[in-house]
Specification:
The structure holds two protein chains of two kinds. By secondary structure, chain A is mainly α. Chain A is built from 20 helices and four strands. Chain B is mainly α. Chain B contains 27 helices and two strands. Classes of the chains: A mainly alpha, B mainly alpha.
């Protein structure tokens, strides 16, 4: 056991939820409460097991750590190849925190097909974690697909009234992106085989290849599209409001908290290192789309009268900022973007959770159905307010540090105006979020049913308070996180810069070749 | 006794906030009062334990780093506090006035129905104090911004304290959003600073700027303009002043502490803090002076026609803040800060007095319903009168010295200085008039309220009157620290104390010649005469003739009167120009761009969708067991595949 945890910690963290899912399938279908408790217990166990990832991770060391590598399909050079750098570490921790938080909420609020629901969540967790640690493109693709399917079911089965439409939209958007990516992965691997005579899907091998001209552009676009849909980048975002609105609360938390980040993560992990030249050529587009996303998402959020839809559009706005930071490509802006992925997971996770708390009691998310409930549910209100403040970037909480470093880092890039334009987000976010607070928690209490609202239950409180604690921690001690991000960001920048120099020094032929 | 560290000063109220926020509701009102007032008192004691040796010593700036906050790619922000003459000045009155207002709040909030509400109030008040003290003591722009946004948050929460009233809820949101417009400027200013100086620490930025003015001056125009936009938001200057009158929806101690004495002066403090930068951007200085001067006059005019006691005081605050920026704009930063300090004393006194009146009037603030209250509210009346004389600029009260210093600095300024002086003088006359108008309407004449109100009128408890008395004495005395030069070269204490902060930039600007004493005396005589005429006129119109001349004037010019009474309809114009177009645009983006265009295009590719739909309908049986089974089989296949491969 000790050896397993010592040498295969990453795998244990990744596959523990899957093992839990298998265990659940052995239960009778009707064993709802056992399924609930087991799923929650497994996710908590996974969180506990993942803590040593954080403590054993060496701060300040570039490259991947805690690596494991086993041949999987040697005929095709596919390996089970996993490891962590600062970027994946953070998102892995975010996943292992948010999954038990969502399952804790689900403990009391899911009645239908509990076993199936629990299985879906645990498989989903393995899919997400696997995507975040995979260093082999074939492995990554498997995890990526494993992640999509349970979410499709979670929306389609346990969702709201328009769940079929929403899940279909979600599926079509993401599938069309990932199919293109799949083709691109195959293409790159075949090129590698042609050039070297050996099969490999390992990121390290494939990044040694150099693609130029139109080939690189097409390959890059295939990857970028898959990730852009996931983020989502304007104008590919319209699946998101529907998916969020119809998904059950826990599904929204995971969808916004982790899955959207996988778009940006995939871009940083794969698209950029594989196709640095094209990535740099398209960076200005990315920045511009990010700026549009920030402003557009915020304005559309303001027009919403469904709380969940409002928070969903706010995600479009927040992730626009993340995209800008990636497009600007300075150490500060990239680090800020990665931090902001975590921040958004915490704040939006908490917002969806608390909207869920209200929804479970009143079965409506219309802003106008509420009003003046701050005195009735003071604890919910306080938690919601803190999540709001985190979301709108109040200094002292986590959101500010991410926002500030992205904007300042972008200001220091050649694209100063992106920063200036995106900084209007500080005004816009205050407008739509405080309008939500005012219309739901403040104002006169006119709807009589709201007088009977009950405040958060202990389980709901623990779930939300966990996120609040993390918001304060990152807000006050951001260096704990930034120190872990920096080496990863710097080595990413270095590798891209080196590749670009090499590329421009020797005018290379159109077709790929391998540099050693 | 060992010297307490600076970080303790903001930390104490933060602990108070945490205690009251977490436990206050359960432990009841006396616990809450003890913690809330205790924290404010203790932090005042600690602050003075640092201030007294500092003022008595050699005034050398002290910087005390606590920890690194953000360290990333050249950006290095410490949590680090700074005690220098400027922060010392702010610290001296922020802590003390805050303590008095905390004490006052015990009496004022006594009638609060629930423990939860009472705890929330004191928790927010302590949180405010934490943020304000962070703002004041910060050693970097970014840490100042932490306090800056923090005070904005508390302002928002406390304006919306009576959140079940829709006007209070809306006013809180408005305050936050308008302040965020200013903060947008502050942020861009910081980006510019970091790009130019590679740092956001005061010592480094100001030192570099002063060392090499020629190098940095070109960038500083835009930077200072952005920073000043931040100041305009926080300190309620035209065109961003609109949130402050609405902010009166908050409880009166909040209006006194946050929206008069401390927070709203943060913009002035920031500009004074950045004086090195502003002095290298003379065109921005002109802009600062112009905005300040215009705001002073504009808000003063509006105040004349308001009937809500707190609204009059709110516009008066905006107007006085304009004075402070006027001073900064003509380069008299120290004088501006002097007015910040005197204003904190008399304006806090006025607001608390208004709160006491409101208490007596069963919550009514309309001066048309008051009258003759001086008989029953003797202490409130006396202290309100003293503070009124102080703000009106009657010698030798505090406001006289600071206002006179501003006016003579404006008179002395090159360029349009005489115009600024004339407008400032006119505003001084207006100030005296509108303040004595409300004194007359409130405390003189006969009572015009309902019989029920008359029955209830009573003087406030001592927890409220004692702070009033203390503040009244401060309104009398605090001006003597800044006597004008005519009283002798060493009569002015505050100017030399602050001088190191505003030291001339070598080779950039020469020392300005002081006004001749004769001119000085003349200016003083003129401003006293103007203030006295304002008072006399108000006395004549509202006490002697019971408001009839004012009514006649209003009737003679109904259009003008309505325009002023309706505050030049600026809110309505903003609504028309910004709010409604914004609403329409956001709705358009949603319904047309998102739903119609983007989703429309997607749905138009119907072929693909339908095909996949058919496929999915075939797969989707709706039976979870089947899904699970498929999952499981797939997984087993995968695992077998892996095993086989290995």
């Amino acid at each position: 056991m000790d050896a397993l945890l010592r040498d295969h910690l990453v795998s244990v963290v990744v596959f523990l939820p899957l093992a839990g899912a298998v265990l659940l399938l052995l239960l009778p279908r009707s064993a709802a409460s056992a399924a609930r408790n087991i799923a929650f217990g497994v996710s908590v166990l996974d969180l506990i097991v993942s803590v040593p990832l954080w403590t054993r991770f060496l701060v300040g060391v570039p490259g991947f750590q805690l690596r494991e590598r086993i041949d999987w399909i040697p005929q095709l050079g596919i390996t089970y190849n996993v490891g962590l750098d600062g970027i994946s570490l953070l998102l892995v921790m975010l996943t292992t925190v948010l999954t038990p938080v969502s399952l804790l909420f689900s403990l009391t609020h899911v009645e239908k097909e509990v076993r199936g629901y629990s299985v879906a969540f645990l498989v989903l967790e393995t899919g997400m974690l696997g995507s975040l640690v995979a260093l082999d493109l074939a492995l990554f693709y498997v995890f990526w697909e494993v992640m999509l399917v349970p979410m499709y079911f979670i929306i389609g089965i346990w969702g709201g009234p328009r769940r079929i439409y929403a899940s279909m939209k979600f599926f079509l958007f993401t599938m069309s992106g990932s199919l293109l990516m799949f083709l691109a992965i195959l293409f790159v691997a075949i090129r590698h085989h042609t050039a070297t005579g050996a099969w490999s899907f390992a990121l390290e091998d494939l990044t040694r290849m150099t693609f130029t001209g139109r080939v690189e552009t097409y390959l890059f676009l295939a990857f970028a599209l898959a990730f852009a849909i996931k983020v989502p980048v304007f104008p590919l975002h319209t699946w998101l409001p529907d998916a969020h609105t119809e998904a059950p609360t826990a599904g929204s938390i995971i969808l916004a908290g982790v899955m959207l980040k996988l778009g940006a993560y995939g871009y940083l992990r794969f698209a950029l290192p594989l196709f640095p030249d094209a990535a740099m050529r398209f960076a200005p587009w990315l920045g511009v789309l990010g700026v549009i996303g920030v402003i557009y998402g915020a304005m559309v959020a303001y027009a919403q009268h469904d709380m969940k839809r409002l928070v969903a559009y706010s995600s479009v706005s927040h992730l626009g900022l993340v995209v800008i930071g990636i497009g600007a490509f300075t150490t500060m802006s990239l680090s800020g973007s990665i931090l902001q992925m975590v921040n958004h997971g915490l704040s939006t996770g908490a917002l969806f959770l608390l909207v869920g708390v209200l929804y479970e009691r009143r079965h409506t998310r219309e802003l106008d159905a509420y009003g003046g409930i701050a005195a009735v549910v003071p604890v919910t209100t306080a938690l919601f307010l803190i999540a709001t403040l985190s979301s709108i970037g109040l200094p002292g909480l986590n959101g500010f540090v991410g926002e500030f470093t992205i904007l300042l880092g972008t200001w220091l890039s050649p694209h100063r105006w992106w920063s200036a334009a995106a900084a209007t987000g500080v005004i816009l976010s205050a407008i739509y979020m405080l309008t939500l607070v005012q219309r739901v928690f403040w104002n006169p209490l006119v709807v009589e049913e709201n007088r009977k609202l009950t405040d958060v239950r202990p389980s709901e409180f623990v779930a939300a308070a966990t996120l609040v604690v993390l918001m304060v921690w990152i807000g006050v001690r951001p260096n704990d996180v930034l120190d872990r991000i920096r080496p990863a960001v710097e080595s990413l920048q270095k590798s891209v810069a080196a590749r670009q120099v090499a590329l421009h020094e020797s005018a290379r032929p159109e077709i790929s070749e391998v540099r050693r | 006794m060992t010297t307490p560290p600076l970080w303790l000063i903001p930390a104490i109220p933060l602990v108070g906030f945490a205690l009251n926020g977490l436990l206050g509701t359960k432990l009841g009102k006396s616990f809450v009062s003890a913690v809330g007032v205790g924290a404010a008192g203790l932090t005042t004691v600690v602050a003075y334990a640092r201030l007294i040796p500092f003022v008595g010593g050699n005034h050398q700036p002290v910087v005390e780093p606590v920890a690194s906050w953000i360290a990333l790619a050249g950006l290095s922000i410490d949590i680090s506090f700074r005690l220098d003459p400027l922060s010392a000045l702010m610290l001296s009155f922020v802590t003390f006035v805050a303590f008095l207002i905390h004490v006052y709040s015990i009496g004022y909030m006594h009638h609060e129905a629930t423990n939860a509400g009472y705890a929330r109030f004191f928790a927010y008040l302590n949180l405010f104090l934490f943020a304000m003290l962070t703002l004041v003591l910060a050693e970097s722009f970014l840490l100042m911004f932490v306090g800056w946004e923090g005070v904005g948050l508390c302002s928002y929460l406390l304006i919306g304290y009576y959140f079940e009233a829709d006007y209070a809820a809306a006013a809180g949101r408005k305050a936050f959003v308008v302040n965020r417009i200013g903060d947008f400027g502050f942020l861009l200013g910081m980006f510019g600073l970091f790009a130019a100086f590679g740092s956001l620490n005061y010592s480094e930025v100001f030192w570099k700027a002063a060392q090499d003015p020629a190098r940095f001056a070109p960038a500083l125009g835009a930077i200072c303009l952005c920073l000043f936009v931040g100041a305009m938001g926080k300190s309620a200057q035209v065109p961003l002043y609109v949130w402050l009158p609405d902010a009166m929806a908050g409880p009166t101690p909040v209006s006194a502490l946050i929206h008069a004495a401390t927070m709203v002066t943060a913009g002035v403090y920031m500009v004074a803090r950045c004086n090195v930068l502003f002095r290298l951007a003379p065109e921005v200085m002109v802009f600062v002076a112009a905005i300040g001067c215009f705001t002073a006059l504009f808000a003063g005019i509006i105040a004349v026609a308001q009937n809500d006691l707190k609204k009059v005081l709110a516009y008066s605050t905006i107007s006085q803040l304009g004075y402070m920026f006027l001073a900064c704009g003509v380069g008299a930063f120290g004088v501006g800060m002097f007015h910040v300090m005197t204003h904190a004393c008399f304006k806090a006194c006025l607001f608390l007095g208004a709160g006491s009146v409101m208490h007596a009037m069963s919550g009514d603030l309309d001066v048309r319903h008051m009258g003759g209250l001086r008989g029953k509210l003797r202490i409130t009346y006396a202290t309100f009168l003293v503070a009124t004389l102080a703000i009106a600029g009657i010698p030798p009260l505090a406001g006289f010295f600071s206002k006179d210093a501003i006016l003579s600095a404006a008179f002395d300024a090159p360029g349009a200085g005489k115009v600024l002086w004339a407008v400032g003088l006119a505003t001084a006359g207006l100030t005296a008039f509108y303040m004595f108008r409300v004194v007359s309407l409130t405390f003189f004449g006969r009572f015009r309220g309902t019989a029920e109100q008359a029955h209830h009128i009573h003087e406030s408890p001592s927890s409220m009157t004692v702070p009033l008395i203390v503040l009244a004495f401060l309104s009398i005395g605090v001006g003597f620290v800044g006597l004008p030069p005519v009283f002798g070269a060493r009569a002015d204490l505050i100017g030399p104390f602050l001088a190191p902060i505003f030291a001339p930039i070598a080779g950039h600007e020469g020392a300005r010649e002081a006004l001749p004493h004769a001119t000085e005396w003349l200016l003083m005589a003129v401003s006293v005469a103007v203030a006295a005429s304002g008072l006399m006129l108000a006395w004549q119109w509202y006490v002697k003739q019971e408001g009839r001349p004012a009514e006649r004037l209003a009737a003679a010019m109904p259009g003008v009167y309505a325009l002023v009474a309706e505050k030049f309809r600026v809110d309505e114009d903003y609504d028309f120009l910004f709010v409604r177009p914004f609403n329409r645009l956001s709705h358009f983006l949603w319904k047309v761009v998102d739903v119609l265009i983007i989703d429309g295009i997607l749905n138009a590719s119907a072929f693909l969708v339908e095909l996949s739909g058919d496929f999915l309908r075939f797969v989707q049986t709706g039976n979870v067991r089947n899904y699970a089974l498929t999952f499981f089989l797939g997984l087993i296949a995968l695992l077998l595949f892996v095993a086989g491969a290995m």
